[in-house]
Amino acid sequence: MLYDLELQSVGKTYPDGTVAVSDFDLKVEKGEFVAFLGPSGCGKSTTLRMIAGFEEITNGEILIMGKNISHTPPERRPTSMIFQNYALFPHMTVRQNIAFGLDVKKMETAEKKRKVDRILDMFDLTEFADRTADRLSGGQRQRIALARGLVVEPEILLLDEPLGALDANLRRIIQNELKLLQRDLGITFVFVTHAQSEALGLSDRVVVMSNGVVEQISAPKELYTRPATPFVAEFIGSNTIIEGKSGKMLDGGLQQIETPYGPMAGVGTAGADMAVIPAESFRIGLRETPGEIALEGTVASKKLVGSIGYIRVKLSDGREIDVETHAGSPEAQSLSAGASVTLGVDPSSVTLIHH
Ligand SMILES: Nc1ncnc2c1ncn2[C@@H]1O[C@H](COP(=O)(O)OP(=O)(O)OP(=O)(O)O)[C@@H](O)[C@H]1O
Fold it and tell me: In which domain, by residue range, is 302 found?
């Protein structure tokens, strides 16, 4: 199969010895929306810059549509990059800013005008075409940056925290626009962000990184329901992590571990020794389902926010765990601090991982 983008064991060690990225493997299909997500300094931007060609790679290979472009200069790669600060020329007009990439390619005037007009129209920027970029709002600048990236018709659009400078409201609006645009154009997007909701809401697949290493590459839902590493389990969503000792294999593809709270079954591989339980997988009260895990405790606090009830339960050993339930449920309505509760969990919603 021919991938649009392929990273094979890509690594970057900066001249001062900092290892920013190691052994990054990724295959991206045409038209996929992939997000790189991780805390500050984990190597997201370095990886994006290596794909764009602004940073030399020190290990591995990068292929675009099967062609090895590892050492091709940026202007000869079929990529466009959009920066967080948009990098617009403030005293150039919107039209000149957008045409910039085509000027670099020495496109002839009539064709250039046609392409710029079309993209101005697409982004609702026609009325601002002759205004200088410094006289526009943040949202308008963001659109120009996108238009400038897309006018050159790249195979892959690389976006480095492109919404970071926008306020929360505008950010939500542009997120929606971006998703629709990407779907319409069918262009591959690689998007860097440290905002979880953005990565999970926009992309087909998320690459979670920490310390220069890929922790997991999965569809957003799977990151919530089946975290693969302790880092992902802590970083994504709200999980309770219980450490134990590896146990036996059970029927039905389940695995068991021994924990201070008794044996716990879950979905995992042999040798797993940690249970990960999403906050919304706990039930208040048992339902006697097969293999149901039961934890006894008392309610430490309760908060109802919109449709979600956040209940903090203190177990007998003093550990507090977070439970999310429907705010309208009888349990969420009636429980108050100090009440005794039993929490039930089905093994199918527990993931067992290796620490
Ligand atoms: N030019 C450089 N020389 C040396 N080290 C660098 C250089 N640029 C980045 N680094 C280091 O490489 C690591 C990865 O940085 P990078 O900017 O890729 O992270 P990031 O995940 O994009 O972070 P952020 O979200 O803060 O932008 C960090 O430890 C950073 O300090």
Answer: 251-353
